[in-house]
Structure to design on (205 residues):
């Protein structure tokens, strides 16, 4: 046991000392059910590998917009792919997509890029799990539904706050074949939704 006497609680030095360590306030999560334990592990790892300051809601939004612009340039440098930025893609008059980037190969748009700049615990979580996060799964599936020629999507996470040699980015590739069942189920649900939507609409006109 090591007793530290020369650091005052609630000071920046004290918070720095606590980073990446189990403490009394986090013990409940450590000893609770497995999902809570995993969340706490990501938080502790993030404290060790991400140097991110506390921000208010507006600052977080501005940070995300700024980092996405940087991440887009990063993606081009890494992959050497020629990308196009468009504002919206319509599948029909009731369904569409706002892509980050799309990529043409020969005469078809067969690839796309979706970029996220998550804050610290989620960056570590997404980096380690190396799969499309559940929070964005439907967004990714929508790419493949709207863009019928789409074969592959690059899901890129980016952070400029990484430390201790953690990479500032990771690109997770997912193909139409990988999501084939989810795409099919989503298409069926969209058809049913549109039928109900149009029935309601018919009562107004």
């Amino acid at each position: 046991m090591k007793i530290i006497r020369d650091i005052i609680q609630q000071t920046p030095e004290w918070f720095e000392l606590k980073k990446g360590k189990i403490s009394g306030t986090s013990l409940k999560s450590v000893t609770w059910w497995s999902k809570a334990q995993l969340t706490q592990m990501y938080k502790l790892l993030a404290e060790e590998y991400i140097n991110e300051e506390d921000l208010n809601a507006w600052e977080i939004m501005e940070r995300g917009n700024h980092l996405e612009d940087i991440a887009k340039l990063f993606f081009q440098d890494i992959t050497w792919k020629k990308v196009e930025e468009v504002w919206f893609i319509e599948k029909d008059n009731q369904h569409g997509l706002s892509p980050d980037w799309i990529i043409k190969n020969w005469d078809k748009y067969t690839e796309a890029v979706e970029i996220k700049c998550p804050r610290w615990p989620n960056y570590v979580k997404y980096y380690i799990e190396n799969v499309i996060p559940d929070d964005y799964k439907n967004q990714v599936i929508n790419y493949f539904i709207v863009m019928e020629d789409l074969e592959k999507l690059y899901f890129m996470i980016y952070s400029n706050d990484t430390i201790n040699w953690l990479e500032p980015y990771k690109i997770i590739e997912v193909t139409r074949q990988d999501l084939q069942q989810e795409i099919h189920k989503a298409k069926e649900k969209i058809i049913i939704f549109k039928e109900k939507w149009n029935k309601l609409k018919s009562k107004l006109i």
Notes: The first strand starts at residue 89 and ends at 92.
